[in-house]
């Protein structure tokens, strides 16, 4: 068994919010510089800077973005900036794990995808989806996979679009069915939360758009990966960001739990959530259990404390690697 490895985890749409990373933007010069760097790719493709939108004073912390195109741009900018600033500070990943749109960010960090190009492709894909597909509702449900599958209405109206951990799934359904599904969840006293995404990603609802989605990828430059990327769409390492794989990133369910479990079969790892909400860090702790908490690090959070979390990561990362290696089975 070799030394423990560091995994950077990139979350997808739904994890972004206004004021994300504000503490670091104001107090950490390295993060500030990288945020401006990646924002320049947004403006370089003809879009407006996302920074004034993220940090607009009239937007309260936690407010959702109403425009998915702007949400995607803001999410990629923040995730890539945080990852690069951590690397500059000495926290260097051995592996990159992407969930949904977060896999695009992982591909950018792995130097296999160009930021400006993949953002433009995603914007074109959104246009295709809106034209070809019914509006959808995405909802996080805090109950078991088995319960969802055994509940007739949910089985008929919904698809499981993300397996986060046992006791937490995401469901995708047609918007018109949401009120009936909502009443079902309330009747069963099931905690749930609607995610601000109106397209049926990771479900069959996007299939009418497959041809247009694939055409949007024509001309997209793909390069060899400079760093390993793990896909929550396939639960394994990415060989290449070819059209089939990128279509799968949009269409296939997010198998986060299975991806983490597959990684742990290789050995114990240290997990760093570079998403804006710390969601994947929370999921990872549930998958691995309480004993794993010392090797799972969120940085950004909707509740703030970003500077504190960064300081904790920088001071404890090496020790967490050593502890994980010591505890790994021979």
UniProtKB/TrEMBL annotation:
GO terms for molecular function: fatty acid synthase activity. InterPro entries: Ac_transferase_dom_sf, Acyl_transferase_dom, Acyl_Trfase/lysoPLipase, PKS_NRPS_Biosynth_Enz. Gene3D superfamilies: Malonyl-Coenzyme A Acyl Carrier Protein, domain 2. It comes from the Bacteria. Keywords: Phosphopantetheine, Phosphoprotein. Pfam families: Acyl_transf_1. Residues 9-302 form the Malonyl-CoA:ACP transacylase (MAT) domain. One of its GO terms (biological process) is DIM/DIP cell wall layer assembly. One of its GO terms (cellular component) is cytoplasm. The keyword Phosphoprotein applies. SUPFAM superfamilies: FabD/lysophospholipase-like (SSF52151). This is Malonyl CoA-acyl carrier protein transacylase. It comes from Chondromyces apiculatus DSM 436.
